[in-house]
TrEMBL record:
A biological-process GO annotation: aspartyl-tRNA aminoacylation
Name under which the protein is recorded: aspartate--tRNA ligase
EC category name: ligase
Domain Aminoacyl-transfer RNA synthetases class-II family profile: 158-463
GO cellular component, one term: cytosol
Alphabetically ordered keywords of this record: Aminoacyl-tRNA synthetase, ATP-binding, Cytoplasm, Ligase, Nucleotide-binding, Protein biosynthesis
Keyword Signal: no
Any one GO molecular function term: ATP binding
Enzyme Commission number(s) from the entry: 6.1.1.12
Highest taxon, organism lineage: Eukaryota
Catalytic activity: tRNA(Asp) + L-aspartate + ATP = L-aspartyl-tRNA(Asp) + AMP + diphosphate
Keyword ATP-binding listed: yes
Length: 463
């Protein structure tokens, strides 16, 4: 048959033409002898008019009993609506000639897509009694994720996520990086932390990789010069927070450096403005869809990414009356507070903090040459929340082994990693980014579960 037209392509310019479209019954309304079916596809909606005089009484009966979310295909003519349309994304309507049902949905839905797509301001309008019913709770959404993903905002979020990944890859390929894939089943914990999933690897103790850290560095020892990876990262997080998942998508980079870890920060400082610009250029409709449900302001960032030392950050917080440990880590509140202070002073919501205290960084981090209390490391923030950690790495095997022991790591479990540095290793460094966090913060969403297709957290392993 004829090719299908996407609902988003049903516009003024094609009024008069006959189209075939496939979508879901978003809702159905009978007015006299006319049936108004709102058809939804990929988050876009169009009004389809089924008139008895055109299709006959049997067809009206058939269409009327179609449950919400059923998959239908129809043939119709693109037309001007009699009155301007308010409830649909498309401003034309379809006069239906034929309609078929491809798959029926159960009539009782655990979550109605129309409700799940409501914005807060919409909910406010639904009146005192309506409010509770209109607000779909996060757990209901996640338990019924397949229905939840059908909302326009969610359709858009995952398109934006895809474009972030594409822009990341595009930029790095243009800079001569090689895309690699490291193993996710490994013998020892890669971050030395406790949040590791342990498993039995045919009788041998093993872990799910907490990051590609060990193997991306080993790729550098294997003379791959500049590498990146996009892949799953596993963390057995105990706490239930708005920004921690037990499985997320890591965007990782590792590269040789010549003189200084600032070369890595130079790359980051170019990479992210590139990604932000590409998202604005390539996803205008998607950003609008997300904003409709979750209003947010575009990210403020400078063409030249701001860099502050950790000590400068601590100083700013102290001056603002915050109590902070100069050799400890920033907690979530301090990070947020610093984000506000930086925005006021420097007018940016994207910045880097570098030269962190050694005590709060992983064992493989290179100490700062002038003061080993500090390290050649950095974190990057969007809207006051961490999206990235990075650093220069220790490339001397003796020092690496010493630091691992000091951090309480069983060196036997990472001996092949340490050995990799015994055959000569160039100075190098890199960083890791959480994809879900980037999308969450770009769109100022309040929960990382919104940007994970099927989130895995400390309490959820399904759907
Ligand atoms: P780090 O442990 O800071 O560094 O992780 C890097 C980035 O990954 C994201 N992230 C998470 N996202 C969702 N859920 C989690 N539980 C979670 N944990 C971390 C954050 C964080 O900034 N190997 C180093 C990176 C490097 O130095 O190259 C590492 O893993 O966005």
């Amino acid at each position: 048959g004829k090719e299908l037209t996407d609902v988003s392509n049903l516009v003024e310019e094609i009024v008069g033409s006959e189209v075939s479209i496939r979508g879901r019954v978003h809702k159905n309304r009978l007015v006299g002898t006319k049936l108004f079916v709102i058809l939804r596809e990929s988050g876009f909606t169009v009004q389809c008019v089924v008139e008895e005089t055109r299709v006959g009484a049997n067809m009206i009966k058939f269409v009327k009993q179609l449950s919400r979310e059923s998959v239908v295909e129809l043939i119709g003519v693109v037309s001007h609506p009699k009155k301007p349309l308010t409830g649909t994304t498309q401003q034309v309507e379809i006069h239906v000639r034929k309609m078929y049902c491809l798959s029926r949905s159960l009539p009782n839905l655990p979550l109605v897509v129309e409700d799940a797509a409501r914005s807060e301001s919409d909910i406010e309008k639904s009146g005192k009694d309506g409010k509770q019913a209109a607000r779909v709770l996060q757990d209901t959404r996640l338990n019924n994720r397949v229905l939840d993903i059908r909302t326009p905002a969610n359709q858009a979020i995952f398109r934006i996520q895809c474009q972030v990944q594409i822009a990341f890859r595009e930029f790095l390929l243009s800079k001569g990086f090689l895309e690699i894939h490291t193993p996710k089943l490994i013998a020892g914990s890669s971050e030395g932390g406790s949040a590791v999933f342990r498993l039995d690897y045919k009788g041998q103790p093993a872990c799910l990789a907490q990051s590609p850290q060990l193997h991306k560095q080993m790729a550098i020892c294997g003379d791959m010069r500049r590498v990146f990876e996009v892949g799953p990262v596993f963390r057995a997080e105990d706490s239930f927070t708005h920004r921690h998942l037990c499985e997320f998508v890591g965007l990782d980079v590792e590269m040789e450096i010549r003189m200084h870890y600032s070369e890595i920060m130079d790359l980051v400082g170019e990479l992210f403005p590139f990604i932000f610009t590409k998202i604005e250029e390539r996803c205008p409709k998607e950003l609008e869809s997300v904003r409709k449900q979750y209003p947010f302001q575009s990210l403020k960032f400078l063409p030249q990414t701001l860099r502050l030392t950790f000590a400068e950050g601590i100083q700013m917080l102290k001056e603002a009356g915050e109590e902070v440990d100069p050799l400890g880590d920033l907690n979530t509140e301090s990070e947020r507070k610093l984000g506000q202070l930086v925005l006021e002073k420097y007018k940016t919501e994207f910045y880097m903090l570098h030269r962190y205290p050694s005590a709060v960084r992983p064992f493989y981090t290179m100490p700062y040459e002038n003061d080993s209390n500090y390290s050649n490391s950095f974190d990057v923030f969007i809207r006051g929340e961490e999206i990235m950690s990075g650093a220069q790495r220790i490339h001397d095997p003796e020092l690496l082994e010493k630091r691992a022991r000091e951090c309480g790591i069983d060196v036997k479990t990472i001996s092949t990693y340490i050995d990799a540095f015994r055959y000569g290793a160039p100075p190098h460094g890199g960083f890791g980014v959480g994809l879900e966090r980037v999308v969450m913060l770009l769109c100022a969403l309040n929960n990382i579960r919104k940007t994970s297709l099927f989130p895995r957290d400390s309490q959820r392993l399904t759907p």
